[in-house]
């Protein structure tokens, strides 16, 4: 197998966290005619929901991204995948002939435009699999029924709070083979999901060792992944997480891209059974031990602050003038973990750290 160099395929013109169809339509329209783009439905506000189909093989894979409108990292990775599949490479050619792939780049265009998790009716589409109360939910169900996929990829982002197991490493990518029943038993489809995740994990461990986690598998029939697993379709939840100092998630997108390519190569080459359920279960479950900033040794007398040994700060993501601002907020844990990790640690005994805190309006927040 030839080595796949991300730099040859990354769509660097589209970056950052705020991604709508306004940002990606020009790229979609520039794809070769062998990529079939169509409108598969409309959002609450009437915006077009599009799909792209490519490949002519018997193995059918359905993917959708931005079901939650503010989770755009996997959308960027999907564009990178389109670019990879449009180039002249033997690996892409073989996938093209083995697979037919249908991708909805943005399922929730209203939520994407507002940079919110929910849709314009304030409904979480990933809790609407049974009620099908929203037009976007009905679109996905119809696409699923019409396309009859052999595999489904449910593409999401996760918060910066997640670490791998109990380690200090961030969960840069997490996966889940969703449950299909309350007891979280294994069905043939769930087993295949686990094996395919194990394949992707084997690749990512070469790239980001110790930074792959396993998402909570509590059963919820209202979640789309669980619902499709109940129908017997192997379904995988992808969660794009945090990489050091990568709040735009333009590093994490690289690892999602590489995971997607590995999954397609594994399906193409009938290698899923080379991987085991135990390899999937060996991926540590996600912890919730991270905060964005940890401020240590706050000095009331010198800095005008309330004295505290440690103060956790978490960013709130706010859309402002077409860009996402990261607004620091004092974080309150629902249940404080035994140990807290910080993506950035700052010590008020250090003049440079105090300067950074002041310049970023955090001293004002803590006073």
Q: Any chance you could write out the topology, listing elements then pairs?
A:
Layout: H1 21-29, E1 36-42, E2 48-54, E3 59-65, H2 73-86, H3 90-98, E4 99-104, H4 109-114, H5 135-147, E5 151-157, E6 163-164, E7 173-176, H6 188-207, E8 212-214, H7 224-230, E9 235-240, H8 252-268, H9 277-281, E10 286-287, E11 290-298, H10 300-303, E12 308-320, E13 323-330, E14 341-347, H11 351-359, H12 362-366
Parallel strand pairs: 3-4, 3-5, 5-9, 7-8, 11-14
Antiparallel strand pairs: 1-2, 2-4, 6-10, 7-9, 11-12, 12-13
Helix pairs in contact: 2-8, 3-8, 6-8
Would you give an account of this structure?
It is a single chain. Strand 7, helix 6 (188-207) and strand 8 form a beta-alpha-beta unit. The strands form 3 sheets. An 8-stranded mixed β-sheet has the order 1-2-4-3-5-9-7-8, sandwiched between helices. It has a 4-stranded mixed β-sheet with strand order 13-12-11-14. The protein is 32% helix and 24% strand. It has 12 helices and 14 strands. The chain is globular and about 65 Å long. With 367 residues, the protein is of the alpha/beta class. Residues 302-307 have low confidence and may be disordered. The chain has 2 domains: 6-287, Zn peptidases (Aminopeptidase), CATH 3.40.630.10; 290-366, no CATH class. Helix 3 crosses helix 8 (252-268). Keywords: Carboxypeptidase, Hydrolase, Protease. GO terms for molecular function: carboxypeptidase activity. Residues 21-128 form the Peptidase M14 domain. This is Zinc carboxypeptidase.
């Amino acid at each position: 197998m030839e080595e796949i160099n991300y730099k040859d395929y990354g769509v660097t013109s589209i970056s950052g966290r705020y991604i709508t169809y306004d940002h990606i339509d020009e790229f979609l329209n520039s794809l070769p005619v062998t990529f079939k783009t169509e409108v598969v439905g409309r959002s609450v506000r009437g915006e077009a929901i599009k799909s792209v189909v490519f490949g002519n093989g018997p193995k059918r894979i359905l993917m959708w991204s931005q079901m939650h409108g503010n989770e755009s990292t996997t959308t960027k990775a999907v564009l990178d995948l389109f670019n990879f599949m449009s180039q002249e490479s033997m690996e892409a050619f073989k996938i093209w002939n083995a697979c037919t792939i249908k991708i909805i780049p943005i399922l929730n265009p209203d939520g994407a435009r507002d940079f919110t998790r929910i849709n314009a009716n304030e409904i979480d589409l990933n809790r609407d699999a049974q009620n099908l109360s929203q037009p976007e939910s009905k679109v996905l169900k119809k696409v699923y029924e019409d396309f009859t996929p052999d595999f489904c990829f449910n593409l999401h982002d996760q918060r910066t709070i997640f670490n791998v197991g109990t380690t200090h490493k961030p969960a840069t990518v997490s996966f889940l083979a969703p449950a299909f029943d309350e007891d979280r038993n294994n069905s043939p489809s769930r087993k295949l999901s686990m094996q395919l995740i194990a394949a992707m994990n084997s690749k990512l461990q070469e790239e980001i060792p110790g930074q792959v986690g396993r998402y909570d598998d509590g059963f919820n029939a209202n979640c789309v992944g669980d619902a499709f697993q109940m129908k017997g379709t192997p379904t995988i939840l992808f969660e794009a997480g945090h990489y050091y100092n990568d709040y735009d998630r333009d590093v994490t997108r690289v690892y999602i891209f590489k995971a997607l390519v590995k999954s397609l190569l594994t399906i193409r080459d009938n290698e899923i059974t080379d991987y085991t359920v135990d390899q999937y279960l060996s991926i540590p479950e996600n912890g919730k031990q991270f905060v964005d900033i940890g401020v240590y040794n706050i000095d009331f007398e010198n800095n005008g602050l309330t004295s505290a040994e440690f103060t956790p700060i978490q960013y709130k993501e706010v859309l402002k003038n077409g860009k996402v601002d990261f607004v620091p907020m004092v974080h309150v844990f629902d249940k404080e973990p035994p140990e807290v990790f910080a993506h950035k640690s700052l010590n008020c005994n250090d003049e440079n750290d105090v300067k950074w805190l002041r310049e970023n309006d955090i001293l004002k927040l803590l006073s």
